[in-house]
Amino acid sequence: MDANPTPTPDPVRGRTHGSAPTPLSVLDLATVGAGSTPTASLRTSVEIARLAESRGFHRYWVAEHHSMPGVASSSPAVILAHLAAHTDRIRLGSGGVMLPNHAPLVIAEQFGTLEAMAPGRVDLGLGRAPGTDGATAAALRRGDNPHEGADEFPRQLAELTRFLEDDFPDGHPYSRIHAVPGPVQGHSNTPQVWLLGSSGFSARLAGTLGLPFAFAHHFSAQNTIPALDLYRESFRPSAVLAEPYAVIGVSALATEDEAEARRQVLTGALNMLRLRTGRPGLIPTPEEAEKYPFSSLEREFVDSWLANVVHGTPDAVRTGLNDLAKRTGADELMLTANAHGGDVRVRSYQLIADAYGLPTP
Question: In Å, how far are 178, 186, 195, 235 from 167, measured between CA atoms?
Answer without folding.
Answer: 9, 13, 21, 24
